[in-house]
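Two records follow; treat each independently.
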Amino acid sequence: MKSGNLGYPRIGRDREWKKALEAYWSGRLEEEAFHAELKAIRLRNLKVQQEKGIDIIPVGDFTYYDHVLDTAFMFGLVPARFRSTDREPGLAEYYAMARGNREATACEMTKWFNTNYHYIVPELADVKPVLGRNRLVEAYREAKSELGIEGRPVIVGLYTFLKLSKGYKPSELENWIDRLLPLYGQVLRELEAEGVQWVQVDEPILSMSLPAEELFHVARIYDKLTKEAPGIKLLLQTYFESVDHYPEVVSLPVHGIGLDFVHDGGRNLQAVREHGFPSDKVLGAGLIDGRGIWKADLKGRLETLKMLGETVSADRIVIQPSSSLLHVPVNAAMENGLEPTLREALAFADEKLEELVLLTKAGRLGADSIVTEIEASSCSRNALQQSPSRTRKQVHKRIAELANQPATRRSSFDVRRDKQRKRWNLPLLPTTTIGSFPQTTDIRGARLKWRRGEWSGERYEAFIQEQIKVWIETQTKLGLDVFVHGEFERTDMAEFFGEKLAGFAFTASGWVQSYGSRCVKPPILYGDVEFVAPMTVAETVYAQSLTEVPVKGMLTGPITILNWSFVRDDKPRDEVAYQIALALREEVEALEAAGIGMIQVDEPALREGLPLKREQWPHYMDWTVRAFRLSTSAVKDETQIHTHMCYCEFHDMIDSISALDADVISIETSRSHGELIGSFERHTYVKGIGLGVYDIHSPRVPTVEEIGSMIDRALRVLDPAQFWINPDCGLKTRNVEETIASLRNMVKATELAREKYA
C-alpha cells in the first residue's frame, strides 16, 4: 500500500507565488528572475511532500496562472487575437489569454466544477493544435534532477478538456478528439522516453451526470492512449463526486482508477462493494478531504479502507486526497491566534499529507500502529463539537421555528416595480457599479495599521470616511445614477461579514487561490451563526448623507458566505445557510430602518455550489432560493432589492434566478456576453437586469464603442425599461486611473444609448 498526492497548493506559505506574478506584471521583476522565483517555489512545494513521506508525488500541477490554460497553451490553442506573426507565443501571449491586453479581451473565465477556483476557458474556434514545449517532461526532469523525486506527471484529461472548452459545435466533438489525440499521444511518448512510469490523467468530468453514450468517446480516447505509449501506466483520476457509470469507467483500458470516497455520498464505496474492482488495476482511494480543512475522522477513514480491502488487495491501493489540495491553505501550524479547541481540529495541506501517511501506515501495519493518532484526532473533533460555539440555544430555536419565518415579499414584482419607479424616478438605462472601488496601497496600509493597533478606531474611521467622500464626489462627477459607498473598510466580501457575526473564525495565513494571482482567505464557519450588531449601516448612512443620489447598501448573501467559507462538517449545509440568512435579515432590516432604500445582497457564488449531479439540482435550488428570500423578504415594497451573480450558465438557472425575487440582478457576463444574450432569446425574464458591459478582470480600458456594442446586443432581446448599465463585477482589484476611465466611457456609452432608445 502506498500514499499519493494529486496536487499541492501553488501559492506558497506566504503567497510568494502571487507576489512574484504581480511583480512581473508590473515590471518590477525581470523575466529571468521571475522564472527563477517560480522555480524556487515549485521545488519547495515538492520538497515538502518528499519530507512528509508521500510515496507518489505529482509533478506538472504547478502553473504560471491556471492548469487548464497551461494545457491549451501547450497544445498551441492560442486564439488569433493573441497571436503575433513574428514570433512563437510566449509569456506575453499566455498572460494576454488570461488577463487581456490593450488590443484584445481576455478568454472567458469560469468556475472549476463546483469550487471557487476559476479556470481560463479554452477557445477552439480559430486555432490549429500543435504540441509546443512539453511542460510535463520539463517538470519530471526538474523534480528528478533537483530533488531525486520520481514524480507522477499530471495532465488534464482530453475529454474533460474538450467538455470545458468552447468554440465548437457538439457535432464536432469527435473531430476535436481526433485532432487532439495525437498530441496527447506525443506527450505520453516523450514522457515514456524520459522513463516516466505513471501519468495522472485528471477526468473530473466523469463525476458529472453524463449520458451513457458519451462513455464511447472516453473509451476510444483511452484505448488509443494506452497504445500510444505502452510503457506508461495511466491513472485515470476522478474527483468531487461519485462516478455514475461505475462498471463502464473501471473497465476503461487504463492501469488505475482514482475515486473520491469523501464527497461521493457513499456511492463510490457502494459501487466497489457491489460490482467489485478490476484485479489488474490500481485503486486511487480518495480518503482525505481535498477541499475541507477539518481533521479527518481517522477511525472512520480506516473503516472505509477496511471495506475497500475486502475487494482490492493492499498492494493495489494508493491512499490519496479526494482531489488536489489546491483548494485548501498550505499549513495550519502557523495559526496560533485561533482558539485552541478550533486550531486543534484543523488540517490544511501539510497536515493532510501527514494524515495520508498515517492511513498508509495503518493500512500496512494495522490500526494499532497509529492508535495514539486516532485517539488524538477523535479528541480534537469531539472537543469542538461540544464547545459553546456550537450550542447556541437561541439560534437552534430560530431554526426549529423556520417554517413560521416568511420568505416572500409583501407584494408581487409588478406592484413593487411601480412603487419603486415612483420613489426613485431613475432615467432610462440607469447606471451603477457592483459595489467596491479600488483598494489602493494606502487603504490596505491603513487597515493594517488599525489591525496592529498603530491607529485608533477613531482615526481609521475618519480615514474610511474620507475615502467614501472622495468616491461619492467621483461618482457625482462621472454622472452615475445609483451610487455605492465603495467598501473601503472591507477585505474579502465573505470575511468582512464573518468577522461581525458569531460563529466564524479567521486565520492568519489561510490563503487559497481563487483565480490567477487572486488569493482569498475564507472564513472558518465553525459554530452557530448569530447577528451581533449592525455591520454596514454606519458607512452606508454616511455615504448617503453626502448626496441626494441613492446609495445602495451592500451585503454578501447567505449562499455566497456559505460557499466562500470553510464550513463545519457536522450539520447539513442548508441548515447552516438558514442560520446565515436569518442573521443577514436583521442587517437588511437595520439598513432599511436607517433610511437606505436600495439594498444589494450579492450572490456571486450561487451557481458554483450546484451539485455535479443534475438530479440533485432541484433540492439545492430550493434551499438556496429560500435562504436568499429569508434574508430579503421583510422589506417594504418601495425598498429595492438588488443582487449580483458571477459567471454562470444563465439558461440552466433562469427559473431559480427569477425565484430569488430580487428587483434588479446584475450578472458578470462581459467575457461571454453573446452566449447570455442567446439565453434571453429562449427564455423570458421580466425583472430589472444589468449584464456587465465591461470586464473588470482585465487591466484594459474598454472604449465607448465596445460598451455601446454590448448595450446594443443586450437590447435586442431585453426591454430598455428593465435594463441597467454596470461593470460586470466589483472594482476592488483595479487601479484608480483604469476605474475612472472605464466608468467615464461606460457613462458616455449609456448617454448615447439613451438617445438611441428613448
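The next record belongs to a different protein.
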Amino acid sequence: MTRDRFQSLDPSTPSDRLEHAQRTGRPSWPLGATGLVYGGDYNPEQWTRETWVEDVHLMQEAGVTMVSIGMFSWASIEPRRGEFHWEWLDEVFALLHEAGIRVDLGTPTAAPPAWFFREHPEARVVDRDGRALGPGSRGMACPSSPAYRLAATGITRALAERYGDHPALALWHVHNEYGAPVGESFSRFAQDAFRDWALRRHGSLDAVNAAWGTAFWGQAFGVPEEIHAPLPTPSMQNPSLELDWRRFSSEQILECFRAERDVLHELTPHVPVTTNFMAHTCPNIDLWKWADEVDVVSNDHYLIAADARNFVELALDADLTRSLARGRPWMLMEHSTSGVNWQGRNVAKRPGEMARNSLSHVGRGADAVMFFQWRASLKGAEKFHSAMLPHAGTSSRIWREVAELGAQLEELADLQGTRVHADVAILWDWESHWAQDLPWRPADDLSHRAQIQTWYERLWRDHIAVDFAHPEDDLSAYRLVLAPASYLLSDAAARNLEAYVHDGGNLVVGPFSGVVDGEDGVRPGGLNAALAPVLGLEVHEFCPLRDGDEARLVLDGKPLRSRLWCEDLQLRGADAIGSYTDGPVAEGVAATRHAYGDGAAWYLASDLDVEDLAAMFSGPYLAAGLTARDLPEDVELLERRAEDGTRHLIALNHTAQPVTVSVDGAAPLEVPAGGVATARVPASVTAG
C-alpha cells in the first residue's frame, strides 16, 4: 500500500479538518477511522499468542475499531541495546489488520528498559532533595538527559521505519501521559539547561535579576553560573524563579515530545501524531503550548472517586479538552470501565455509568471513546484497574456494557465531525495557576481550581455551554467571558480583556485577579492594577477570613455568605451592586458593575458557593442575552451541530429516577434512571 493511499484514508471532509490540513499539510484524524472510534489500550506483550487470537475475536464482538499498542513495549521490542525483536509485534499487527481493527502505535519512551538505566544511571530523574529515583516504576527518565533523548528518538525511528507503511497504522501515539508522574527533574543536566533557558528567555544576566526581583533578600546573581534551580532553602524560595522553573520544566518535556514527533513527521508525513493529555488533572504541563504541536488532540480522564458529583468535573475536563483542540473533534484516549487502582478508595461504576461517562465526552466533542485497558492485567501495579475485558470475563456486567456501548457508538456514527457551540468562555491559564499556587499568598485555601470549578458548575447547572480560553485569545465570539481566577495577567492579556469589554463584551472577574504581571510582580497602582481601568475600581487590601468565620453580604437583594475571602474596594467609576453587612469590610462594596466602552465588566470580591453565584450571574446573563435552561436537576442535554444544521442531542440522567426532557423541534426524550437518550433533529425542523 502506498503513502498516497494512506492519505486518502483521512476523512478530512469537515471544514475544521480541511483547515488543519491546509494549514499544516498534515492529516488531523486517524487514518481509515470512520464513525466514532471505539477501543482501548492493548498490551499483547503480557499475553500468549493464543490469547491474542481470542482478544481479536472479542474485540470484533464488542465493536472495537481501534486499539493503542506499544506504550510500554520498549523492553519487548529491544531487550538489549540494538537487538530488535519484531516478530511478535508483526504478528499482532497482522491479526488486527485482518480483523479490520486500526492501530494507534505508541512510542514506548515512557518506559525505558532496564538496560538503558544500567548503561545511563545519570539519566534517572532527580527529585528536589537531590535523590536519584530508581527505575522499576512508570514514567520517563530525566527530560533534560541527552542519553534519554538520543535513545528515545532512536526507538521512535526504528518503529517508524518498520511500521510506517503498514496498512493497519492509523495514528502515532508518542509516549504516555507526559507530566505524570514526572513533571520536573533536578539533575545536573536539568540545572544546566535551566540556566541557559533563563538567559535566553530574559536576554541577559541583568534581565534575569530584574525579572526575578533578586534585589530582595540579596539574591542577585553576579555571573551566569550562579543561576540555580529552586532547590530546598531554609525559607521561602524566590517565587519568580519558581514560576520560571515551572515554565522551563513544561517546555523541557515538550522538547522531548517534539524530538520524537519530528522523527515521525520526517519518516511518515502521511500519518497523524498525538500524545495523550491529562487536561484537568496534570497541572504541571501548559497544554495551551502543547495543543498546536499535535495533529490530533487526545485526552485521558479518570473520575475522582471521592467526589459524589464527579460527573461535573468530567464535564469540565471534556470542555477544556475541546477548547485545547480549538473546537475540532478530539479523542478520549483513556478512561475506565469501572474503578481504577490508584485512589484511596477505588469506587466501582454503577450500572449505566460507563455509558453515561462516555457519552458526556462525546456530547462535548469527542469523536473517539477509548479505555485503559482492553484486558485486565494479571500482574503488576495496575492489576486491580478495571478493563473492557475484566477478570470476570465475558459473563460480567462490565463486558455486557462494553459491547452495548460499542453498538450504541456505531448507531451514532453520523456525529463524527459535528461541532459544539458555546457562547460563554471561562479563562484558564496554567501559568497563572502555577503562580497562585506558590507559598506565602494571603490565604492558602483560596484555590484557583476550586474557584474555577465552582463557577463552571453554576453554568453547568444553568445548562449553558462553556468553552475555555487563554486570556490572550481572541474572545470576540463570546457573549460572556468569566475570569474566576486570573491572579497573573500578562500585559497582553490585560489589554485583550480591556479591548473585549470596550468593543461590547461582557466580563465577570473573580477575587484575587489581575494582581501580578508575568513575572509574579505586583504592578504599581494597587492590587488589581492590570484590570483597574476596565473594572472601574481599585483593590486596596485583601481581607481573608479566619478559619471558621463567615462574612455576610447582600447582592441583588439576596443575602449571601463568604467563607474565605473579602476585599477592601475603592470605586473609580464602577457602580456597587453588592455590599458586606458584616465581617472585616462591613458596609464595604462586595460586587460591582462598570460600563466600559460598549460593554460592561462585573467584579466579585468574595468567594461564593454554587447556589449563591446565581445572584452574581443574573445581571451578566441578562446583558449577554443568555437564559438558564429549565431541566430536571442533575440532568444534562448536550448538543452537537452538523454543518448542514442537523442537531444531535444527548440527554444524560445522573439521578436514580427516570426523567422526561423537552426538546425543541422533536418529541420529548424519555431518559431512564442513570441512563442516556439521544435524538437527531434535522435542519429542516424549526425549533419551537
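Discussion point: Residues 1-14 have pLDDT under 50 and may be disordered. How would you locate this feature using only the C-alpha cell line?
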